[in-house]
Write a structure and sequence with these properties.
Elements (H helix, E strand, L loop, with lengths): L1 E7 L4 E7 L4 E5 L6 H13 L3 E6 L5 H4 L2 H8 L3 E4 L3 H10 L15 E3 L4 E4 L2 E7 L8 E5 L4 E5 L2 E2 L2 E2 L9 H12 L7 E4 L5 E2 H7 L5
Parallel strand pairs: 3-4, 4-5, 5-6, 10-13
Antiparallel strand pairs: 1-2, 2-3, 7-8, 8-9, 9-10, 11-12, 13-14
Organism: Pontibacter korlensis
Cofactor: Zn(2+)
GO molecular function, one term: hydrolase activity
Length: about 210
């Protein structure tokens, strides 16, 4: 599986495109809001001959959902989230303008993900892992074969997701990291929602929030 990161919007959010030799592609957390960002996403897909087959959100804070409707409408795919985060998604229109996104267009989920589900596309399978704390319905996507995690805002290089937003809880987040992520092999690469990738082993050893 190839992981491509495109960083969008003022929050510097990482949008991930996952694809393999089949050319089928999954988009995770599209943060593209401006037209130029949408065009950048579209160009990458066209240049690489990809077919978008799924649209996933790790969680539904505004910076991770700004491009949901664009992707859903452009590629004819339904949005998939964890049901516990639907309340977070439905709240976005109430504050989008205050954050500088007056043109935000809502895209509601077509189906729900849950712990233990397998997200399949092309020759690839991702395991859905429920990891709340940053958001009540936060999930991460684990590719066991390639030892990679698309991790959203749970674990960052040297840091963790913030827990001061509605539905956040520090103790829950720490427990999610320790019981859901730190039980994965040390060599697993974590691709977070912001900033550079890291590994499980590095964060076990150096992350100041988890020593």
């Amino acid at each position: 599986m190839k992981v491509t990161c495109l960083t969008f919007n003022p929050f510097q959010e990482n949008t991930y495109l996952l694809h393999d030799d089949s050319k089928e592609c999954v988009i995770v957390d599209p943060g593209c809001y401006e037209r130029r960002e949408q065009d950048q996403l579209k160009k990458y897909i066209e240049d690489n001959g990809l077919k978008v087959v799924r649209l996933l959100n790790t969680h539904c804070h505004i910076d991770h959902v700004l491009g949901n409707k664009f992707v859903a409408d452009t590629y004819g795919v339904g949005l998939e989230i964890h049901q516990e985060d639907e309340q977070v998604l439905r709240a976005v229109p109430t504050y989008a303008s205050n954050y500088g996104f007056p043109q935000y267009a809502e895209q509601l989920p077509a189906s729900y993900l849950k712990e233990g589900d397998t997200v399949k596309f092309g020759n690839t399978a991702l395991e859905v892992i429920f990891a709340p704390g940053h958001a009540p319905g936060h999930v991460v996507f684990y590719n066991k074969t390639d030892r990679t995690v698309i991790g959203g805002d749970v674990l960052f290089q040297g840091s963790i997701g913030r827990t001061d937003l509605p539905g956040g809880d520090f103790d829950t987040l720490i427990q999610s990291i320790r019981t859901k992520l730190f039980t994965l092999p040390d060599e697993v690469t974590v691709y977070p929602g912001h900033g550079p990738e890291t590994t499980i082993g590095y964060e076990k050893k150096y992350n100041p929030f988890l020593r």
